[in-house]
Amino acid sequence: MTDPSPSPDPGSAASTASPRPRKLDLAVSLVVLVVWLVPITEGAFNAAPGTWWPGLIRDFGSISCLFRQRPENLPYYRLQVRREFSDEWTELDEREFFPMEPFGHRSRFDRFMDRWAARSLKARDDLVVWISARDHQLRPNQPAIVEVRFIGGNRPIRVGQPPPLGHWQKPHIDPNRLKIDSIHLVGQPGRRP
């Protein structure tokens, strides 16, 4: 009979060598590095991750840059509608259509416009179709909405002019400084003026 080979001593170098990292661990580490640490590092130097990153990755990276610089102004949006048999534009009460305010006192409409619709007429077209259908549900006896226009503005933030007391509210539309972002006929592609 042959002698079995001796087992290694628990204190020897052969028993303390760690196994090589698994490929899955390396892949996950690479994803974390690229998707999170690189945008955070870039954001630390540039005050925000680059615009070439997809939106989700910018969100991951921008968390490291909260409140690094104060904003110079605050964007806001409003909706105006024109109904059948009328040439007059009236402001739509957004609270009926967007009652939730999950972002402080800003509604889901404000967040939608900030995030997606400010750049995309197609996203606004979809919203216009929904607004028209929802309005018909809420007011079946009123003339239908035939046209919607999106009004945009920026409220400057000035140290010497604090906002009014109470929670944040959208500024009133100044007819002399009306900035129309886009106009949409219900069911047709929108256009910029």
For this entry, give a set of tags.
193 residues; alpha+beta; four-stranded antiparallel β-sheet
Describe the structure.
The chain has 193 residues and is α+β, with helices and mostly antiparallel strands. The chain has two domains: 13-65, no CATH class; 73-185, no CATH class. 35% of the residues lie in helices and 16% in strands. The protein has six helices and four strands. The protein has helices at 13-16, 23-46, 55-62, 94-97, 108-117, 121-138; strands at residues 73-83, 90-91, 145-156, 180-185. Strands 2-1-3-4 form a four-stranded antiparallel β-sheet, covered by helices on one side. Helix 2 (23-46) packs across helix 3 (55-62). The mean pLDDT is 77.
Care to give the gist of this entry?
The chain is α+β, with helices and mostly antiparallel strands.
Shape: elongated
pLDDT average, as an integer?
77
Which stretches are poorly predicted, pLDDT < 50 over at least 5 residues?
A: none
The portion of residues forming beta strands comes to: 15-25%
Biggest sheet architecture: 4 strands, antiparallel
Percent range of helical residues: 25-40%
